[in-house]
Design goal:
32% helix, 4 helices, 26% strand, 5 strands, alpha+beta
């Protein structure tokens, strides 16, 4: 599907989750040229879900905020999903082979694997997080259609 279609799915998903938890806002900062890029359907949903369920502790944390940003840099589609939730220790998560309480670790690992297998090692997904400070997940994908981007930038940051 296109990034535009994926974003619409996320908007609809957020409406449902806001009705359940009422503790977060979701904002979008999307570069127009990125919206036609091809992406895997539902590849953003697990990250948004993790922010709501784990980062905002199933409605226990108030004032949650999720921002989804997209840009094209040198033929690479960069998408970041940032939340201001409780964060987590990424190194510990990376080492954990066994499911942890209330978390199977399967969603993000599967997305990472799919992106690496489909697009190669120069693309994929990175996670930055610190306990108490929120989480940022960055996707790097080939920009398969449209967009001039800002060729002076070479990374997603």
């Amino acid at each position: 599907c296109s990034l535009s279609e994926e974003i619409e799915l996320i908007r609809q998903y957020a409406v449902i989750q806001k009705a359940r938890f009422m503790n977060f806002e979701i904002e979008f900062d999307l570069e127009e040229s990125s919206l036609g890029c091809r992406v895997f359907q539902f590849f953003l949903q697990p990250v948004v879900e993790n922010a709501i369920v784990h980062g905002f502790q199933r409605g226990m944390t108030r004032g949650g905020r999720i921002e989804i940003q997209s840009r094209i840099f040198e033929h690479t589609l960069c998408i970041t999903v940032t939340d201001n939730g409780c964060g987590f220790d990424v190194e510990e998560w990376e080492r954990a082979d066994e499911p942890q309480e209330n978390h199977t670790n399967i969603g993000l690992r599967c997305i990472r694997q799919i992106l690496q297998l489909e697009y190669g090692p120069e693309y994929g997904m990175t996670i930055q997080s610190n306990p108490g400070r929120g989480t940022t997940v960055t996707y790097r994908l080939p920009a398969e259609s449209g967009g001039d981007g800002d060729d002076s930038r070479t990374d997603c940051g």
